[in-house]
Amino acid sequence: MILKFFIPLILLFTSSAALEAQKGKLFGRVIDAGTSNPLLAASIFLSETQLGAASIQNGEYIITNIPEGIYKVECSLEGYKPTIIENVKISSGSITKLDIQLKYEGKNVWLPDDLEAKLLKDLPAEVKQNLIEVKKLDLNKYYTLLHQTSLSYTSRSGFIYNQKTESRTEKILSLDLQAELLGLQYKKVDKSEQKEIRQKVESILRDLFNLREVQRKEELKTLETKIEKLKNYTLEFSNNKEEIIKKRINELLK
């Protein structure tokens, strides 16, 4: 009886696997045509079918179970000009590789204009200028760095806040953005200029990490002082707990 039940089940799985093996796959990356950076959440689908996928963080996508044939592949992403690739051949049991480039149309799809202006307005002049230079080279990177930089700057007074630490924070943010900017420029120059950029990046990062080391040590010292105060407060509270409870009862039950 059991054998009779499993035989059709085995045949079902076998035939499903055979059908899948007869189909092909489409695989590739979606990138920005201007910067060659990977694009996340681009929509890729085969025209006149229900087969499609979305690109992941590194720009890669894969569409499986595609019947053999010739297809038109459409790709779109908000803020970019949609593109269509004709005559993409899919063969049974094989993977077709197709990388897609999308051209940016100049639309800000990351942040409302008023929010972008507000985030920039609150930043120091040198930091703001570095961000604007990044924007000219890579919009994806710009909006990511704008968000991160604004968050870092607005939370700068978490441990210590005075004129000295304020100046150091601004310098750290500025150096970090300078390194990012050089990283973007590095991809666009020849080997002789790349060597010079590498030296500049190394120098900037040494200055940056020296400043961060000083910052971390000061924050640690401040934190240790706070912990010591908290220990003393906890000890005092434990020693006087009963007296504190009685005092609170009298306050509540007047």
Short description:
With 254 residues, the chain is α+β, with helices and mostly antiparallel strands. The protein contains 7 helices and 9 strands; from the N terminus they run αβββββββββαααααα.
Give a verbal description of the structure.
- This protein is of the alpha+beta class and 254 residues long.
- Helix content is 56%, strand content 19%.
- The chain has seven helices and nine strands, in the order αβββββββββαααααα.
- Strands 1, 4, 6, 8 and 9 form a five-stranded mixed sheet that branches.
- A hairpin with a 5-residue loop joins β2 and β3 (52-54).
- α3 (125-137) runs antiparallel to α4 (139-154) and α5 runs antiparallel to α6.
- Mean pLDDT is 83; it is low at 5-19.
Topology of helices and strands:
Elements: H1 2-21, E1 24-32, E2 43-46, E3 52-54, E4 60-66, E5 69-76, E6 80-81, E7 83-90, E8 95-97, E9 100-104, H2 113-121, H3 125-137, H4 139-154, H5 163-186, H6 191-239, H7 241-252
Parallel strand pairs: 1-8, 1-9
Antiparallel strand pairs: 1-4, 2-3, 2-5, 5-7, 6-9
